[in-house]
Every structure is written in structure tokens, then in C-alpha cells.
Automatic annotation (TrEMBL):
GO terms of molecular function: oxidoreductase activity, acting on paired donors, with incorporation or reduction of molecular oxygen
Organism: Mariniflexile fucanivorans
Taxonomic path: Bacteria, Pseudomonadati, Bacteroidota, Flavobacteriia, Flavobacteriales
Descriptive protein name: tRNA uridine(34) hydroxylase
Family that this chain belongs to: Belongs to the TrhO family.
Keywords noted in UniProt: Oxidoreductase, tRNA processing
Record domain Rhodanese: where: 144-239
Length: 355
């Protein structure tokens, strides 16, 4: 029995090209009580590997969270399999707006303590006491209401390239940080305002809305299915799209374009641009925004120091890295003082001053 991925990304990419089949990228999640995540994990791997599913799936005692791709012509088999599992029956699948056959190149099904690393102690509040889910049309109405405070629950590098009109986009590195900042800044409005929140696919808001209700917020709402499902409904129902720019996603596509607005800037020259890249110096790998001109001039590096290192023969680069260890990934996401045009995100205080 093969229970783990065996092919390299390169081998897999070649197989996908050879197959020449269209693939679908999608995501889903469900909070549920899972008695033995390891058994479910193995079952999913064995079944989905046969269906040529690729992606990253987390299974925990609190539920499942999956982002994956599969050949379009196997979709029905996949759906039938989901429907055969009690708590996954009729689950909403978020189908990606922009498709890319190589969004995932490995199948990884992992058992984790939680399906989202949210840093919360769930024993301290009732996670099932969630906010009210809003479909796209109602969401559009709510966010135009002057009694609404609209909060982006994602991290700074996500909201920088795209967010809803009038949203507060906390300048945070983690979900956990954003909860404290939002609660502190909105503490005087727990009863008189609508707290409306959104994230990529809705999963972060499932916890956040329960958390804020526990903290005493009276009117808590969340965008159902996140930006991904919103975009689908806007298209299907011909609604006004109020999302500006690109939706950051966690696969090799990096982002999907929702509107033509370019709301970010190249971090090096400041020109309007909204596509992330990673610094070519492997030891740095900083995630930042770089326009094509700067990319060429800087050889895809974030600084002249990285450029010099990146020019060295690989063996010398490895020598330099020895003993340095890997720094924390969080601080590798567009946080570097040498990037002059990293955008200052709107904080909540600004929001109230502008109103
Ligand atoms: Zn530039
Ligand atoms: Zn760098």
C-alpha cells in the first residue's frame, strides 16, 4: 500500500503535460468531530491518489481543510466519494476563478492538531456559536451601511494586492495578531456597529466570528465561502463586484485576478504593480512585489546584497548559509526595511477618522 506521495514535482509536472487533461483547482473545509484523523487521512490518500488528486489537505480532530486539483473528468467520482462520507456530504466546493493545471504538484494529506493554525485555545470559547453567514448580495448591502465595520481577516501581504472597498486591512503577520488588534480598536463599538468580516475561503471567519461573539460583539457577520465564493456568486447573479484587485491564494498560482484595479505598488520603484515574487537568493526567499523592470535590473532579487550572493556559485552560497539556520517564515513575507515602497496598510484608527 502506497500511503505517501512518491513523485517529485518535476516528474509530476511532466506527467500532467503528457496527460494533456484539463484540471480543476478547488478548496473546501468542514469543522466536524473526527474520532481518528489518521484513519481518515489514510482513506483519503488511498482514494484520492487513484483519482489523480493533488494538493494539500489537513485532517484534525476538529475537521478537514483541503486545497487541491484533479482532472476535470474525474470530478464526479471525487464528488461521489465526498458524498459517501457523512460530514462531507453536499459540502460546498470553492472552485478557483483562474485555473492552472499545475496549481499543485504533490498529494499531501496531513494529520494536524488543527485544520488552521489559528493560535487559539478553543476550550475557552464556543466555536460553534458563529456569526451570521452572508451571501454575496446581502454582503454588498451590508458593507454599504454606515453602521458596518468591514474587516479583512487576512494577513498584510494578502490584503495588499486586493481587498473589498472600504475594508479595514490590519497590518498583521498572523491571524492571531489580528484578533487582538481588532478587539482592542473596536472595543467601543461592540454593540452599536455591525462587525462584518471576510477572508479567502471563509474558514478563518468561522473561528473569528465565534471569537468576537465570545468577546461581546453583538452583531457579527461573515462572508460565506469567502472571496472565492463571493466572486462566483457575483458572476452567476450578475451582481456588482466590490472586490478590488487580486485574491491571494496559497498554491502555485499565488493570486487570482478579481477586478482590473491594480491597488499595490512595486516594492522597489513604487510603480503600480500587484504580482508577488520570491527573492531569487535561496537563503532569503523574501515574498515581495516586484515589477518586470525591477525584476530585470535586480535579477529577481530583493536587494543588492541578495543579488551579490545569488551571483556566487551554488557551492559558495551553501557555505555562506552554514550555521545560519532558517529564519521564521512569517518575517519573510514582504517585511523588510530595505523595500522603500511596501505599502502602509490602513489601520482601524484611520478608518474612523475618514468616516
Ligand atoms: Zn519596480
Ligand atoms: Zn532577498
Amino acid at each position: 500500500m502506497q500511503l505517501y506521495n512518491k513523485l517529485s514535482a518535476k516528474e509530476r509536472a511532466e506527467l500532467i503535460d503528457q496527460a494533456g487533461k484539463k484540471r480543476l483547482t478547488l478548496s473546501f473545509y468542514q469543522y466536524a468531530n473526527i474520532g481518528n484523523p489518521q484513519i481518515l487521512r489514510d482513506h483519503l490518500f488511498l482514494t484520492w491518489d487513484k483519482l489523480e488528486v493533488l494538493g494539500r489537505i489537513y485532517v484534525a480532530t476538529e475537521g478537514i481543510n483541503g486545497q487541491l486539483s484533479l482532472p476535470a473528468d474525474r470530478f464526479n467520482e471525487f464528488k461521489n466519494h465526498l458524498d459517501s462520507i457523512d460530514f462531507l456530504k453536499d459540502i460546498r466546493l470553492n472552485i478557483a476563478v483562474e485555473q492552472d493545471n499545475k496549481s499543485f504538484l504533490k498529494l499531501k494529506v496531513k494529520v494536524r492538531n488543527k485544520i488552521v493554525a489559528d493560535g487559539l485555545n478553543d476550550d475557552t470559547f464556543d466555536v460553534t456559536n458563529k456569526g451570521i453567514h452572508l451571501a454575496a448580495e446581502d454582503f454588498n448591502t451590508y458593507i454599504e451601511d454606515e453602521n458596518t465595520i468591514l474587516v479583512d481577516m487576512r494577513n498584510h501581504y494578502e490584503s495588499e494586492i486586493g481587498h473589498f472597498k472600504n475594508a479595514i486591512t490590519p497590518d498583521v503577520d498572523t491571524f492571531r495578531d489580528s484578533l487582538d488588534i481588532i478587539e482592542a480598536d473596536l472595543k467601543d463599538h461592540k454593540e452599536d456597529k455591525n462587525l462584518v468580516m471576510y477572508c479567502t475561503g471563509g474558514i478563518r471567519c468561522e473561528k473569528a466570528s465565534a471569537y468576537f461573539k465570545h468577546k461581546g460583539f453583538k452583531n457579527v457577520f461573515q462572508l460565506e465561502g469567502g472571496i472565492i465564493e463571493y466572486t462566483r456568486q457575483v458572476k452567476e447573479q450578475n451582481l456588482e463586484n466590490k472586490f478590488l484587485g487580486q485574491n491571494f491564494v496559497f498554491d502555485d498560482r499565488r493570486a487570482e485576478r478579481i477586478s482590473d484595479d491594480v491597488i499595490a505598488n512595486c516594492h522597489q520603484c513604487g510603480e503600480p504593480f500587484d504580482v508577488h515574487t520570491n527573492c531569487a537568493n535561496e537563503a532569503c526567499h523574501l515574498l515581495f512585489i516586484q515589477c518586470p523592470k525591477c525584476k530585470e535590473a535586480m535579477e529577481n532579487c530583493c536587494s543588492t546584497t541578495c543579488m551579490e550572493i545569488n551571483r556566487l556559485p551554488f557551492e559558495e552560497q551553501k557555505e555562506l548559509r552554514k550555521g545560519q539556520g532558517n529564519s521564521n517564515d512569517i518575517f519573510k513575507k514582504g517585511r523588510a526595511n530595505h523595500l522603500p515602497h511596501k505599502k502602509d496598510l490602513r489601520n482601524i484608527f484611520d478608518h474612523f477618522q475618514k468616516k
